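In the design runs reported in the main text, the only information available to the sequence generator was the tokenized backbone. The following block is the verbatim input for one such run; it is reproduced so that readers can re-run the procedure and compare outputs position by position.
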């Protein structure tokens, strides 16, 4: 019987994950099909109940469900518990286990961005959704000493900071209102800027005005494309990377969780590139247009050491 793996999100009209995971199943001889399920929040519990069936290997969870799905599974891994967000589900019989493979995916992306430099200790994170939780957790675990979070709705950033209270007790983790003057002042004190909002995903917009981006910054955009922010930062002289490595490595970790097999990362990378060159859009990070625009240019860190 062909097993099923589903991506649950809203919307998930097209997906780079589908191309990447199906290529991995086919390459490894796993008889499984990756399906896209567009499910509004109100029917999320029904979708989660459905994947308890024997024909499912598991699921991916994406925008906007990563936090909402937490109380719907039976068990959480340490990373899912710590972040309060789930992006991958596996089955143990009829019980569902929630994992967060965005955390290891972000680690690969961060290492690729920093390269041979000393790992910085200060960061600004834009956003407070499921992706931002993986980022903040990854930065805390990496030993960052100061992280400032800006989010459109300040209360959500404050809730995230509160969530990390105990694990961040040894360092400074703060939510701040996103006024331009405050962001500019903070940019002057930080080394890393991570965009974990969806600004730039479906429209060519940037969360930060170009003129306040300092040249010595390292900028990671979780969106899998050469976004407005990345173009501005690169023009300012910053080192930039997009969400490709994170997408690839969260997917590789999920593949291993479902199948118990090492992920064919090269095959998955090629499938991602092919899907992008065909203009496939992704719930996980690719806006419309510029399908080939993510290729690393001068000064970019995209395609870092762990890409293969
Ligand atoms: P969520 O829906 O959980 O969070 C969305 C975030 O974006 C919130 O902080 C939200 O702010 C903010 N936001 C959305 N629209 C606007 C807007 N118009 N103006 C200001 N802020 C806005 O999504 P995720 O955290 O799951 O994903 C966020 C981004 O990260 C997406 O672009 C996603 O593609 C990318 N991502 C990429 C991954 C990868 O593997 N490369 C992995 C995970 C995420 P508010 O709280 O105020 O609504």
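Verbatim output:
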């Amino acid at each position: 019987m062909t097993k099923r793996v589903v991506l649950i999100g809203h919307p998930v009209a097209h997906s780079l994950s589908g191309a990447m995971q199906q290529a991995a199943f086919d390459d490894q001889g796993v008889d499984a099909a990756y399906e896209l399920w567009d499910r509004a929040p109100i029917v999320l519990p029904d979708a989660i109940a459905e994947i308890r069936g024997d024909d499912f290997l598991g699921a991916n969870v994406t925008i906007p469900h990563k936090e909402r799905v937490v109380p719907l599974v039976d068990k959480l891994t340490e990373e899912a518990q710590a972040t309060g967000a789930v992006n991958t589900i596996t089955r143990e019989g009829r019980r569902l286990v929630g994992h967060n493979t965005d955390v290891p995916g972000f680690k690969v992306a961060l290492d690729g961005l920093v390269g041979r430099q000393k790992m910085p200790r200060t960061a600004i994170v834009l956003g407070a959704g499921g992706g931002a939780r993986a980022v903040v957790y990854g930065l805390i675990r990496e030993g960052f000493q100061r992280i400032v979070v800006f989010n459109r709705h300040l209360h959500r950033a404050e809730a995230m900071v509160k969530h990390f209270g105990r694990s961040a007790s040894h360092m400074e983790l703060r939510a701040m209102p996103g006024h331009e003057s405050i962001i500019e002042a903070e940019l002057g004190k930080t080394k890393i800027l991570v965009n974990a909002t969806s600004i730039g995903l479906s429209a060519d917009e940037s969360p930060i005005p170009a003129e306040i981006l300092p040249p010595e910054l390292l900028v990671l955009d979780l969106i899998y494309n050469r976004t407005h922010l990345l173009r501005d930062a690169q023009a300012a002289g910053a080192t930039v990377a997009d969400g490709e490595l994170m997408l690839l490595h969260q997917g590789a970790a999920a593949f291993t969780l479902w199948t118990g097999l090492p992920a064919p990362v090269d095959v998955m990378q090629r499938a991602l590139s092919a899907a992008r060159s065909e203009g496939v859009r992704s719930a996980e990070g690719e806006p419309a247009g510029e399908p080939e625009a993510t290729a690393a240019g001068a000064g970019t860190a995209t395609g870092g050491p762990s890409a293969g």
